[in-house]
Amino acid sequence: MKASVGDVVLPGDYCEEISAVGEKAKVIIGPGLQKEIDHVYVTKAGILKKRNPNTYWVDNYQKRYIPARGENVIGVVVQKAGDIFRVDVGSSITAALSYLSFEGATKKNKPDVQIGDVVYAKMLVASKDMEPELVCVDSHGKKGRMGVLSDGFVFKCSLNLIRKILNPNCPLLESLKNEWPFELAAGMNGRIWIKANTMRETIALGNAILGAEYLSDEEIKSMCTNIATILAGHVS
Amino acid sequence: MAGLTRKKLQLPKSVLEMKFMKRTKERIEKELENIHGHEGLYSNIITNEMRTATGNYIPEASFIYCENLIDGRLSFKGMNPEIERLMELETAKEEESGEMQKDVSDEVLAKNMNKFKSRKRPSLTPSKYNVTAKKKK
């Protein structure tokens, strides 16, 4: 069936608008869209979205992570195998993380990573038919924001929630950031690591994030002020 | 492909016929055969679409670029100074790439430039051009 931007689409639908634009200009087709010989087909059930300039994708509900190159994810080290760590990122197979892809690591100076550690890493290789590969350094060899996450608390959520809170227009982090000190790492694989000074604050932060999934922007703002007042002890 | 090989320097036939050039001759013949063989070999795999396909469609597997998502590692109110420093650097970079900070606003600059232009400028090195310009006035 023909579909246009903003529609609810199902796998097998096709969008002629994208093909028309693709005749003249460059088009970026994101997740959930696939170029076939005659049309651009939808491969996921969701809402067809567009962003200028000429970027199309399908916004769908999903909990299973499919590795994509360049995404930052949170993984748990499950095995040390020779010169790589195997990291569970929630995809169909574990990802490989070389011990040399840490800042300042050499063959003699191995990074201190144990089985069970939580790492925040970037997908370097994410191919359909191969084991995904992670790195904990950027192209300059600096660790940047990646590396082992110590302490804190990890919980899982849908992939949509991650995208929702990392959207620049989302008011959640904007309204929480001035309330109490906290640290957060959101992996595109549907895992969030949070760390605050006390357990009460950590729980409040976790609840605020999980509660935001099905709320509108206005509701998120009021929920955040609610949580902040409860935490401050004004309401018991 | 054939065009490329034609452009390549080729040894004259008379030279290739010589006895010591036997191996080179064989190699060149083999190369030519390979080039001609390619089109026939892959004709069932190379489709018309492959020949006419345009590079206008860029597949992108990640939502990050589609939805313009921010980096997921954040720290607030001094929980992790290292991360906060990186966040500050990033926001500073974004602001810089936007509009440059101005010491003098556009209006003040325009006013002053008008004053500056209307004022007769004493030339430091009097030249032929300056003199002629004054005469015209």
Notes on the structure:
The complex is a heterodimer of chains A (236) and B (137). With 236 residues, chain A is an alpha+beta fold. Helices cover 22% and strands 30% of the residues of chain A. Chain A has helices at residues 16-24, 159-166, 171-176, 199-211, 217-232; strands at residues 8-9, 27-29, 33-35, 40-42, 46-51, 55-59, 72-81, 84-88, 95-98, 118-125, 133-135, 147-149, 153-156, 182-187, 191-196. In chain A, a hairpin with a 2-residue loop joins strand 7 (72-81) and strand 8. In chain A, helix 4 runs antiparallel to helix 5. Chain A starts with 7 loop residues before the first strand and ends with a helix. Chain B is mostly helical and 137 residues long. Chain B has a domain at 2-52. Chain B is built from 8 helices and 2 strands, in the order ααααβαβααα. At the A-B interface, helix 1, strand 2, helix 2 and strand 14 of A face strand 1, helix 5 and strand 2 of B. Chain A: One of its GO terms (biological process) is CUT catabolic process. Chain A: Residues 27-64 form the Exosome complex exonuclease Rrp40 N-terminal domain.
Short description:
The complex is a heterodimer of chains A (236) and B (137). With 236 residues, chain A is an alpha+beta fold.
What's the CATH H-level superfamily name of the largest domain in chain A? K Homology domain, type 1
**Alpha-beta classification of chain A:** alpha+beta
Q: Which structural class matches the secondary elements of chain B?
A: mainly alpha
Estimate what percentage of residues of chain A fall within beta strands.
Answer: 25-35%
Ranges of chain A where pLDDT stays below 50 over 5 or more residues in a row are none
Helix proportion of residues of chain B, in percent? 55-70%
Write the layout of secondary structure elements.
The complex is a heterodimer of chains A (about 240) and B (about 140).
Chain A: E1 8-9, H1 16-24, E2 27-29, E3 33-35, E4 40-42, E5 46-51, E6 55-59, E7 72-81, E8 84-88, E9 95-98, E10 118-125, E11 133-135, E12 147-149, E13 153-156, H2 159-166, H3 171-176, E14 182-187, E15 191-196, H4 199-211, H5 217-232
Parallel strand pairs in A: 2-6, 9-11
Antiparallel strand pairs in A: 1-5, 3-4, 5-6, 7-8, 7-10, 8-9, 10-11, 10-12, 13-15, 14-15
Helix pairs in contact in A: 4-5
Chain B: H1 2-7, H2 13-17, H3 22-41, H4 48-52, E1 57-59, H5 63-67, E2 73-76, H6 81-97, H7 106-118, H8 128-136
